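Example 4.3 (complexes with small molecules)
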Amino acid sequence: MLINLNAQADAGTVSRELAGLGLWIDALRNSDGIVQAFQVQSGSTPVTKDRIYQIHGVASVLSPESKHPKVDERRGVPVSIGKAVFGGDDPVLIAGPCSIDDESQLNQIAAQVAEAGGTFLRGGAFKPRTSPYAFSGHGNVALKWMRKAADTHGLSMVTEVLSEADVISVADTTDMIQVGSRNMQNFALLKAIGATGKPVLLKRGRAATVQEWLMAGEHLYAAGSSNVVFCERGVRGYDPKTRNLLDLGAVALLAHDYQVPVVVDPSHATGRRDLIPPLAQAALAAGACGVMVEVHPAPHTALSDAAQALSFDAFREMAKPYRGQGAEV
Ligand code: PEP
Ligand code: MN
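Answer. The structure with phosphoenolpyruvate bound is encoded below.
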């Protein structure tokens, strides 16, 4: 943001007032050394233009036009879905299997999620898999199992849709639609999802910049989405010791600078169950308004992402800060 001064302005007084509003500023001087304007640095407290115009000596306040005005409009506005409030007082716990392997597995997991203080059941009916020979989900029948399990245990549900052809059936069943990392810039899919008006959990593309991620959110809002919650799930790093590289800097940026609701998925970020609990804590410290984790009754038998599935015992331990938020069981 650029704040131009008028000829009569007392630059010292204006700069003190700007600093008092929480703005970090650099003075811009003309060739005679006279301060003509102040440049506001990023990381400053958000202040409206109207407030700055109230300062005596300010001639004009200019800011570059945002490329994601609809995302900006929701700054600081919490997103409520069922019992979960993303960006409210309590962090949100989303948990469930990677893939919905069968109905009874899902029911056992839903009971655990509710008891541990989770408010959202996750699980894949349509699974994006690197190998065409890997289990890719039970499809529509699994959506029905999931709706039933979520309702039985007083949870909301979130599930991924992979194809435009399935958007309506997924939207009709779920409370929140997940856009997976691989589809963050599938603009035709984003448009079809947006048209349903459903809230969206928008995972960050594995090589997407923060700007591209925010723009994907803008695509959803432009197409009609009611709410978008961003989900950091790690970007592709250089070290195969962890599956991805969890970018907590981007989480802090979204939470504190852009002020949009952002949750963290430490399961896909690390690919290792032992690293999920510490990174779930780190996520909240960075400003995330919740976490999404994978849990399974018999992790080694999970049909997808077995290495990152938490056992019930480990899940209960990591979920301690969330206890009391879930359904009465
Ligand atoms: C998932 O959450 O089920 C998933 C496939 O994650 P991602 O899109 O982040 O890889
Ligand atoms: Mn998974």
